[in-house]
Amino acid sequence: MKIMPNRLDRGFYQYQEEFEAKAIEVLRSGWYVLGKEVERFEKEFASYLGVKHCVGVASGLDALWIAFRILGIGSGDEVIVQGNTYIASVMGITINGATPVFVEPDEYFNMDASKIEEKITEKTKAVLVVHLYGQASNMQPIADVCKRYNLRLVEDCAQSHGAKFDGKMTGTFGDIGCFSFYPSKNLGAFGDAGAIVTNDDRIAEDTRVFRNYGSEKRYYNKVVGTNSRLDEMQAGFLRIRLKYLDELAQEKKGICERYLQEMQNDKLTLPRTREGATHIWHQFVIRTEERDELIRYLEEKGIGTIIHYPVPPHLSEAYQYLNLREGSLPVTEKYANTVLSLPLYNGMTEEEQEYVIDAVNHF
Ligand SMILES: *Cc1c(COP(=O)(O)O)cnc(C)c1O
């Protein structure tokens, strides 16, 4: 059997007729960027999250850097972020000229809330929390420390659509929640797409203006903005997926619960979920000291895996200028050297699940 780490085509075929009908509807509408589909999606997604505003943008990275731009955080400012994240989280900070200050993760791969305070300086303006792999972070202590030090709280929800902490949706705890709808995400489009969500009227309005060349009224520009618009086709597809998001999350949860129950191998540490947090299983990430061997062994059996992520941002070539050496974030670096994502996707068959479990157990 051949099993790929992810199968985006399966997600398409699950609702093929609806996606194809929507594509034709949009093509025939004569309106393609920022229109009725975008407006409807923004309303529906805001209502799903229980937040006042959603503003569609062109990608998750755009959502992040625009968020910090709108908050006025840039050169000379510091933003606290966890070390073990996808590099886009960090670029969202540095594109504006601000400096990332890294905190180590906890055993759930999320920001260790107890290590934030020691990183706060005069220059600290915000905390960027990333709900990595689909599990909500430990939001109560994080929100508390932000409040105590008067810091902005921004959430990177690119992997956590619909995940909750203490019953509250990720993306609604802080000043701004940033979403990506890249095809591989749990709420995925068929191209690039993203959004900013907020309860703040002013932030929402500023983002709306900023994403479209800084203009409220066409050809009358208030500020130097950017082009980061969501298109009608993607918004239309996202509205369809959003209807099924909870169902799709349940399906993935079922697969992961089976993995957790049936995988038995002392060489592997299986992922755990924090009490009070929900996990929407963007990835099923295990840890092992024998990663190279496991990857090779699974490959021989036709099973593909991915490392999320092999190089932590502070050691990437792009961030050499931060002068952070190997050993400066030991937990982050240990994770980078031991994590492995096993195949997981909507539309995964029972046989495929069984095959993966069997292979892992025989390693
Ligand atoms: C995917 C991702 C992003 C970036 O989203 P794009 O839409 O690819 O720009 C940001 N942060 C995290 C944690 C992600 O997984």
Return the structural class.
Answer: alpha/beta
Low-confidence stretches: none
- Please state the average pLDDT score: 98
Q: Provide the gyration radius in Å.
A: 20 Å
By DSSP, the count of extended strands is 13
Strand order in the largest sheet: 1-9-8-5-4-2-3
Proportion of beta-strand residues: 5-15%
Determine the N-to-C terminus distance.
Answer: 17 Å
Number of helices: 12
Bound molecules: pyridoxal-5'-phosphate
What about the largest sheet? 7 strands, mixed
Q: How would you describe the shape?
A: globular
Please give the share of residues in helix: 25-40%
**Helix-strand pattern, N to C?**
HHHEHEHEEHEEEEEHEEHHEHHEH
Explain this structure:
Helix 6 (139-148) links the parallel strand 4 (124-130) and strand 5. Helix content is 38%, strand content 15%. It has helices at 8-14, 16-29, 36-49, 60-70, 87-94, 139-148, 201-211, 232-243, 245-262, 291-300, 330-338, 350-362; strands at residues 53-57, 78-82, 99-103, 124-130, 152-156, 164-165, 168-169, 176-180, 194-198, 215-217, 220-221, 284-287, 339-342. It has 363 residues and is of the alpha/beta class. It has a 7-stranded mixed beta sheet with strand order 1-9-8-5-4-2-3, sandwiched between helices. It has 12 helices and 13 strands. It is globular. Residues 59-61, 85-86, 88-89, 130, 156, 158-159, 180, 182, 192, 194 line the site of pyridoxal-5'-phosphate.
